[in-house]
Protein backbone atom coordinates (compact mmCIF):
# COMPACT_ATOMS: atom_id res chain seq x y z
CA UNK A 1 0.00 0.00 0.00
CA UNK A 2 1.40 3.44 -0.89
CA UNK A 3 1.31 6.56 1.29
CA UNK A 4 -1.44 9.15 0.82
CA UNK A 5 -0.72 12.33 -1.16
CA UNK A 6 -0.46 14.61 1.93
CA UNK A 7 1.94 12.12 3.55
CA UNK A 8 4.08 12.06 0.41
CA UNK A 9 4.14 15.86 0.24
CA UNK A 10 5.19 16.07 3.91
CA UNK A 11 7.91 13.51 3.31
CA UNK A 12 9.10 15.37 0.21
CA UNK A 13 9.44 18.58 2.21
CA UNK A 14 11.31 16.74 4.98
CA UNK A 15 13.72 15.24 2.46
CA UNK A 16 14.27 18.67 0.93
CA UNK A 17 15.06 20.14 4.34
CA UNK A 18 17.51 17.34 5.05
CA UNK A 19 19.19 17.96 1.70
CA UNK A 20 19.52 21.74 1.81
CA UNK A 21 19.51 22.87 5.44
CA UNK A 22 23.19 23.18 6.47
CA UNK A 23 22.24 22.68 10.14
CA UNK A 24 20.33 19.44 9.49
CA UNK A 25 22.14 16.11 9.35
CA UNK A 26 21.38 14.51 5.98
CA UNK A 27 23.11 11.17 6.31
CA UNK A 28 23.25 9.20 9.55
CA UNK A 29 25.19 5.99 10.06
CA UNK A 30 23.91 4.19 13.15
CA UNK A 31 25.79 1.28 14.65
CA UNK A 32 22.96 -1.00 15.67
CA UNK A 33 25.38 -3.19 17.64
CA UNK A 34 29.09 -3.97 17.83
CA UNK A 35 28.32 -7.68 17.89
CA UNK A 36 29.02 -9.95 14.92
CA UNK A 37 29.02 -13.69 14.37
CA UNK A 38 31.94 -13.40 11.89
CA UNK A 39 35.61 -12.49 12.39
CA UNK A 40 36.73 -11.16 8.98
CA UNK A 41 40.42 -10.33 8.67
CA UNK A 42 39.67 -7.07 6.81
CA UNK A 43 37.12 -5.80 9.37
CA UNK A 44 37.95 -2.29 10.60
CA UNK A 45 35.61 -2.75 13.60
CA UNK A 46 37.26 -5.94 14.87
CA UNK A 47 38.51 -4.48 18.16
CA UNK A 48 34.98 -3.46 19.17
CA UNK A 49 33.49 -6.74 17.91
CA UNK A 50 36.00 -8.66 20.05
CA UNK A 51 34.53 -7.04 23.18
CA UNK A 52 31.26 -8.93 22.72
CA UNK A 53 27.91 -7.60 23.93
CA UNK A 54 28.38 -4.20 25.54
CA UNK A 55 26.34 -3.70 28.71
CA UNK A 56 25.86 -0.06 27.74
CA UNK A 57 24.54 -0.73 24.21
CA UNK A 58 21.77 1.79 23.53
CA UNK A 59 18.33 0.47 24.48
CA UNK A 60 15.30 0.87 22.24
CA UNK A 61 13.77 3.60 24.43
CA UNK A 62 17.06 5.53 24.25
CA UNK A 63 17.20 5.18 20.46
CA UNK A 64 13.66 6.52 20.35
CA UNK A 65 14.73 9.64 22.26
CA UNK A 66 17.68 10.19 19.88
CA UNK A 67 15.52 9.74 16.78
CA UNK A 68 12.84 12.07 18.12
CA UNK A 69 15.29 14.96 18.34
CA UNK A 70 17.30 14.40 15.17
CA UNK A 71 15.03 15.77 12.42
CA UNK A 72 14.54 14.41 8.90
CA UNK A 73 17.18 12.34 7.07
CA UNK A 74 17.83 11.62 3.42
CA UNK A 75 19.92 8.54 4.10
CA UNK A 76 20.10 6.22 7.09
CA UNK A 77 22.61 3.37 7.23
CA UNK A 78 22.00 0.71 9.86
CA UNK A 79 25.25 -1.09 10.35
CA UNK A 80 27.49 -2.75 12.94
CA UNK A 81 28.75 -5.41 13.65
CA UNK A 82 26.06 -7.51 12.04
CA UNK A 83 22.75 -5.65 12.41
CA UNK A 84 20.66 -8.83 12.37
CA UNK A 85 22.42 -10.07 15.50
CA UNK A 86 20.36 -7.53 17.42
CA UNK A 87 17.09 -9.19 18.42
CA UNK A 88 14.98 -6.01 18.31
CA UNK A 89 16.43 -4.76 15.01
CA UNK A 90 12.99 -4.37 13.40
CA UNK A 91 11.78 -2.24 16.32
CA UNK A 92 14.98 -0.16 16.15
CA UNK A 93 14.39 0.40 12.43
CA UNK A 94 10.76 1.36 12.96
CA UNK A 95 11.80 3.91 15.56
CA UNK A 96 14.24 5.65 13.21
CA UNK A 97 11.80 5.59 10.33
CA UNK A 98 8.84 6.87 12.32
CA UNK A 99 10.79 9.90 13.59
CA UNK A 100 13.33 10.69 10.85
CA UNK A 101 11.52 9.46 7.69
CA UNK A 102 14.70 8.75 5.69
CA UNK A 103 14.22 8.42 1.94
CA UNK A 104 16.82 5.63 1.75
CA UNK A 105 17.80 2.98 4.29
CA UNK A 106 20.90 0.88 3.70
CA UNK A 107 21.59 -2.31 5.63
CA UNK A 108 24.88 -4.12 5.05
CA UNK A 109 24.74 -7.74 6.19
CA UNK A 110 26.79 -10.92 6.07
CA UNK A 111 23.48 -12.66 5.16
CA UNK A 112 23.91 -15.45 7.71
CA UNK A 113 20.57 -15.05 9.52
CA UNK A 114 18.14 -16.06 6.76
CA UNK A 115 15.04 -16.38 8.97
CA UNK A 116 15.60 -13.07 10.73
CA UNK A 117 16.33 -11.20 7.51
CA UNK A 118 13.18 -12.51 5.85
CA UNK A 119 10.98 -11.81 8.90
CA UNK A 120 12.48 -8.33 9.23
CA UNK A 121 11.77 -7.42 5.61
CA UNK A 122 8.24 -8.79 5.79
CA UNK A 123 7.73 -6.50 8.77
CA UNK A 124 9.29 -3.21 7.62
CA UNK A 125 8.75 -3.18 3.84
CA UNK A 126 4.95 -2.84 3.89
CA UNK A 127 5.07 -0.55 6.93
CA UNK A 128 7.19 2.10 5.15
CA UNK A 129 6.24 2.02 1.46
CA UNK A 130 7.87 5.39 0.67
CA UNK A 131 11.26 4.36 2.01
CA UNK A 132 13.65 2.53 -0.30
CA UNK A 133 15.39 -0.27 1.59
CA UNK A 134 18.75 -1.34 0.23
CA UNK A 135 19.98 -4.63 1.67
CA UNK A 136 23.63 -5.19 0.80
CA UNK A 137 25.15 -8.66 1.01
CA UNK A 138 28.87 -8.63 1.77
CA UNK A 139 30.53 -11.02 -0.71
CA UNK A 140 34.29 -11.13 -1.22
CA UNK A 141 34.69 -14.29 -3.28
CA UNK A 142 32.68 -17.20 -4.62
CA UNK A 143 32.07 -20.46 -2.74
CA UNK A 144 34.97 -21.63 -0.58
CA UNK A 145 36.86 -18.36 -1.22
CA UNK A 146 34.03 -16.43 0.43
CA UNK A 147 34.09 -18.75 3.45
CA UNK A 148 37.84 -18.20 3.77
CA UNK A 149 37.71 -14.40 3.36
CA UNK A 150 34.89 -14.19 5.89
CA UNK A 151 36.50 -16.70 8.29
CA UNK A 152 33.11 -18.40 8.44
CA UNK A 153 32.75 -21.97 7.12
CA UNK A 154 29.38 -22.50 5.49
CA UNK A 155 28.78 -18.78 5.02
CA UNK A 156 28.55 -19.02 1.21
CA UNK A 157 25.84 -21.68 1.43
CA UNK A 158 23.93 -19.62 4.01
CA UNK A 159 24.25 -16.53 1.86
CA UNK A 160 22.87 -18.34 -1.20
CA UNK A 161 19.89 -19.54 0.85
CA UNK A 162 19.25 -16.01 2.13
CA UNK A 163 19.59 -14.65 -1.40
CA UNK A 164 16.82 -16.97 -2.67
CA UNK A 165 14.45 -15.83 0.07
CA UNK A 166 15.17 -12.11 -0.23
CA UNK A 167 15.04 -12.32 -4.03
CA UNK A 168 11.52 -13.82 -3.76
CA UNK A 169 10.50 -10.96 -1.46
CA UNK A 170 12.00 -8.40 -3.83
CA UNK A 171 9.78 -9.63 -6.64
CA UNK A 172 6.72 -8.72 -4.54
CA UNK A 173 7.95 -5.50 -2.91
CA UNK A 174 8.37 -2.19 -4.69
CA UNK A 175 10.67 -0.67 -2.06
CA UNK A 176 13.41 -3.28 -1.78
CA UNK A 177 16.74 -3.20 -3.57
CA UNK A 178 19.14 -6.13 -3.19
CA UNK A 179 22.83 -5.37 -3.71
CA UNK A 180 26.18 -7.06 -3.20
CA UNK A 181 29.35 -5.37 -2.03
CA UNK A 182 32.87 -6.79 -2.00
CA UNK A 183 35.64 -5.56 0.28
CA UNK A 184 38.62 -4.69 -1.93
CA UNK A 185 41.75 -5.94 -0.18
CA UNK A 186 45.24 -7.16 -1.04
CA UNK A 187 43.96 -10.71 -0.66
CA UNK A 188 41.29 -10.53 -3.37
CA UNK A 189 42.44 -7.66 -5.60
CA UNK A 190 43.34 -10.14 -8.39
CA UNK A 191 40.18 -12.24 -8.07
CA UNK A 192 37.61 -9.59 -7.26
CA UNK A 193 36.86 -8.86 -10.92
CA UNK A 194 36.03 -12.50 -11.63
CA UNK A 195 33.94 -12.55 -8.43
CA UNK A 196 31.94 -9.56 -9.64
CA UNK A 197 31.55 -11.12 -13.09
CA UNK A 198 30.21 -14.30 -11.49
CA UNK A 199 27.80 -12.27 -9.33
CA UNK A 200 26.63 -10.45 -12.44
CA UNK A 201 26.17 -13.70 -14.37
CA UNK A 202 24.72 -16.05 -11.78
CA UNK A 203 22.65 -13.74 -9.57
CA UNK A 204 20.35 -10.81 -10.08
CA UNK A 205 21.68 -8.18 -7.71
CA UNK A 206 20.40 -4.70 -8.47
CA UNK A 207 23.79 -3.10 -7.86
CA UNK A 208 27.32 -4.37 -7.35
CA UNK A 209 29.95 -2.31 -5.56
CA UNK A 210 33.31 -2.54 -3.84
CA UNK A 211 34.49 -1.03 -0.59
CA UNK A 212 38.14 -0.15 -0.51
CA UNK A 213 39.73 -1.53 2.65
CA UNK A 214 39.84 1.19 5.31
CA UNK A 215 40.70 1.93 8.92
CA UNK A 216 42.80 -0.49 10.93
CA UNK A 217 41.93 -4.00 9.73
CA UNK A 218 42.65 -7.01 11.91
CA UNK A 219 45.24 -8.06 9.30
CA UNK A 220 47.12 -4.85 8.33
CA UNK A 221 48.82 -6.60 5.38
CA UNK A 222 45.48 -6.54 3.59
CA UNK A 223 45.84 -2.78 3.07
CA UNK A 224 48.27 -2.90 0.13
CA UNK A 225 46.65 -3.06 -3.28
CA UNK A 226 47.14 -2.23 -6.91
CA UNK A 227 45.82 0.83 -8.73
CA UNK A 228 45.41 -0.92 -12.10
CA UNK A 229 43.38 -3.76 -10.62
CA UNK A 230 41.16 -1.24 -8.84
CA UNK A 231 40.60 0.75 -12.04
CA UNK A 232 39.65 -2.41 -13.95
CA UNK A 233 37.08 -3.18 -11.26
CA UNK A 234 35.70 0.36 -11.45
CA UNK A 235 35.34 0.16 -15.25
CA UNK A 236 33.43 -3.11 -14.91
CA UNK A 237 31.10 -1.66 -12.26
CA UNK A 238 30.42 1.48 -14.28
CA UNK A 239 29.60 -0.49 -17.44
CA UNK A 240 27.33 -2.82 -15.49
CA UNK A 241 25.36 -0.06 -13.81
CA UNK A 242 24.94 1.71 -17.15
CA UNK A 243 23.49 -1.52 -18.56
CA UNK A 244 21.10 -2.15 -15.66
CA UNK A 245 20.37 1.23 -14.13
CA UNK A 246 16.69 2.19 -14.12
CA UNK A 247 16.46 4.63 -11.20
CA UNK A 248 14.88 8.03 -11.67
CA UNK A 249 17.64 10.51 -12.58
CA UNK A 250 19.96 7.54 -13.03
CA UNK A 251 22.69 9.43 -14.97
CA UNK A 252 22.94 11.85 -12.04
CA UNK A 253 23.19 9.07 -9.43
CA UNK A 254 25.74 7.28 -11.59
CA UNK A 255 27.72 10.52 -11.82
CA UNK A 256 27.81 10.63 -8.00
CA UNK A 257 29.18 7.06 -8.06
CA UNK A 258 31.69 8.02 -10.77
CA UNK A 259 32.91 11.00 -8.74
CA UNK A 260 33.24 8.74 -5.71
CA UNK A 261 35.43 6.26 -7.63
CA UNK A 262 37.43 9.11 -9.14
CA UNK A 263 38.03 10.89 -5.84
CA UNK A 264 38.92 7.66 -4.07
CA UNK A 265 41.47 6.87 -6.78
CA UNK A 266 43.04 10.33 -6.47
CA UNK A 267 43.15 10.18 -2.66
CA UNK A 268 44.44 6.62 -2.36
CA UNK A 269 46.81 6.36 -5.30
CA UNK A 270 47.87 10.00 -5.81
CA UNK A 271 47.68 11.06 -2.14
CA UNK A 272 45.74 14.11 -3.33
CA UNK A 273 43.26 16.32 -1.44
CA UNK A 274 40.14 16.53 -3.60
CA UNK A 275 37.31 18.25 -1.74
CA UNK A 276 36.40 19.41 1.78
CA UNK A 277 34.81 16.66 3.85
CA UNK A 278 31.26 17.10 5.14
CA UNK A 279 31.77 14.54 7.92
CA UNK A 280 30.55 15.94 11.22
CA UNK A 281 28.12 18.26 9.46
CA UNK A 282 25.92 16.54 6.85
CA UNK A 283 27.29 13.06 7.63
CA UNK A 284 27.30 11.87 11.24
CA UNK A 285 27.90 8.56 12.98
CA UNK A 286 26.18 7.41 16.17
CA UNK A 287 27.91 4.43 17.76
CA UNK A 288 26.16 1.55 19.49
CA UNK A 289 26.70 3.10 22.91
CA UNK A 290 25.72 6.63 21.86
CA UNK A 291 29.07 8.24 21.02
CA UNK A 292 28.73 10.78 18.22
CA UNK A 293 31.52 10.74 15.61
CA UNK A 294 32.15 12.76 12.47
CA UNK A 295 33.22 9.56 10.70
CA UNK A 296 34.43 6.00 11.26
CA UNK A 297 38.06 6.74 10.45
CA UNK A 298 39.34 9.51 12.73
CA UNK A 299 38.41 7.75 15.98
CA UNK A 300 37.33 10.99 17.63
CA UNK A 301 34.09 11.90 19.37
CA UNK A 302 32.90 15.15 20.94
CA UNK A 303 30.53 13.38 23.28
CA UNK A 304 27.86 10.85 24.02
CA UNK A 305 24.17 11.50 23.50
CA UNK A 306 23.48 10.25 27.03
CA UNK A 307 25.34 13.30 28.36
CA UNK A 308 23.36 15.65 26.07
CA UNK A 309 19.80 14.61 26.85
CA UNK A 310 19.89 12.19 23.89
CA UNK A 311 20.23 15.07 21.44
CA UNK A 312 22.59 14.62 18.49
CA UNK A 313 22.12 18.31 17.50
CA UNK A 314 23.27 19.28 21.02
CA UNK A 315 26.50 17.26 20.60
CA UNK A 316 27.04 18.78 17.16
CA UNK A 317 26.56 22.27 18.59
CA UNK A 318 29.15 21.71 21.34
CA UNK A 319 32.47 23.54 21.27
CA UNK A 320 34.32 20.22 21.23
CA UNK A 321 32.51 19.06 18.09
CA UNK A 322 32.97 22.42 16.37
CA UNK A 323 36.72 22.13 17.02
CA UNK A 324 36.75 18.69 15.39
CA UNK A 325 34.93 20.01 12.32
CA UNK A 326 37.33 22.95 12.14
CA UNK A 327 40.33 20.61 12.32
CA UNK A 328 38.90 18.46 9.51
CA UNK A 329 38.63 21.61 7.38
CA UNK A 330 42.01 23.09 8.30
CA UNK A 331 43.99 19.88 7.84
CA UNK A 332 42.29 19.19 4.50
CA UNK A 333 41.46 15.76 5.83
CA UNK A 334 41.22 13.00 3.22
CA UNK A 335 40.61 9.25 3.23
CA UNK A 336 39.10 6.35 1.28
CA UNK A 337 35.80 6.11 3.19
CA UNK A 338 33.34 5.81 0.27
CA UNK A 339 30.27 6.94 2.25
CA UNK A 340 32.00 10.22 3.10
CA UNK A 341 33.32 10.67 -0.44
CA UNK A 342 29.82 10.15 -1.85
CA UNK A 343 28.40 12.57 0.76
CA UNK A 344 31.03 15.10 -0.33
CA UNK A 345 29.89 14.72 -3.94
CA UNK A 346 26.33 15.53 -2.82
CA UNK A 347 27.02 18.27 -0.26
CA UNK A 348 30.35 19.87 -1.22
CA UNK A 349 29.68 22.57 -3.85
CA UNK A 350 33.31 22.13 -5.03
CA UNK A 351 32.23 18.74 -6.47
CA UNK A 352 29.22 20.01 -8.42
CA UNK A 353 30.93 20.99 -11.71
CA UNK A 354 32.51 17.54 -11.96
CA UNK A 355 29.25 15.78 -11.03
CA UNK A 356 27.42 17.81 -13.71
CA UNK A 357 30.01 16.98 -16.39
CA UNK A 358 29.95 13.26 -15.54
CA UNK A 359 26.12 13.24 -15.45
CA UNK A 360 26.14 14.55 -19.03
CA UNK A 361 28.62 11.96 -20.16
CA UNK A 362 26.59 9.23 -18.39
CA UNK A 363 23.49 10.47 -20.21
CA UNK A 364 25.33 10.19 -23.54
CA UNK A 365 26.66 6.73 -22.63
CA UNK A 366 23.15 5.54 -21.73
CA UNK A 367 21.78 6.84 -25.04
CA UNK A 368 24.49 5.10 -27.05
CA UNK A 369 24.02 1.85 -25.09
CA UNK A 370 20.27 1.97 -25.87
CA UNK A 371 20.95 2.53 -29.58
CA UNK A 372 23.41 -0.39 -29.65
CA UNK A 373 20.89 -2.63 -27.85
CA UNK A 374 18.14 -1.69 -30.30
CA UNK A 375 20.40 -2.57 -33.26
CA UNK A 376 21.43 -5.98 -31.89
S1 LIG B 1 30.76 -9.50 8.82
FE1 LIG B 1 31.19 -7.30 8.74
S2 LIG B 1 31.08 -6.57 10.84
FE2 LIG B 1 31.26 -8.81 10.92
S3 LIG B 1 33.46 -9.20 11.15
FE3 LIG B 1 32.97 -9.27 8.95
S4 LIG B 1 33.36 -7.17 8.18
FE4 LIG B 1 33.22 -7.08 10.44
S1 LIG C 1 38.16 12.78 5.09
FE1 LIG C 1 37.78 10.74 5.96
S2 LIG C 1 38.90 10.75 7.90
FE2 LIG C 1 38.66 12.89 7.28
S3 LIG C 1 36.78 13.58 8.24
FE3 LIG C 1 36.22 12.88 6.20
S4 LIG C 1 35.62 10.74 6.48
FE4 LIG C 1 36.77 11.35 8.30
Mean pLDDT: 92
CA-based gyration radius? 20 Å
Distance between the termini: 39 Å
Oligomeric nature of the chains: single chain
Number of strands: 9
Number of domains: 1
> Which sequence of strands runs across the widest sheet?
6-5-4-3-2-1-7-8-9
| Helical percentage | 40-55%
CA-based shape: globular
State the helix count. Answer: 14
Residues in β-strands, percent: 5-15%
Question: What pattern of helices and strands is seen along the backbone?
Answer: HEHHEHEHEHHEHEHHEEEHHHH
Main beta-sheet annotation: 9 strands, mixed
Global structural class: alpha/beta
CATH architecture: Alpha-Beta Barrel
For this structure, the CATH topology is TIM Barrel
Based on the model shown, name its key terms.
376 residues, alpha/beta, TIM Barrel, nine-stranded mixed β-sheet, 12% strand
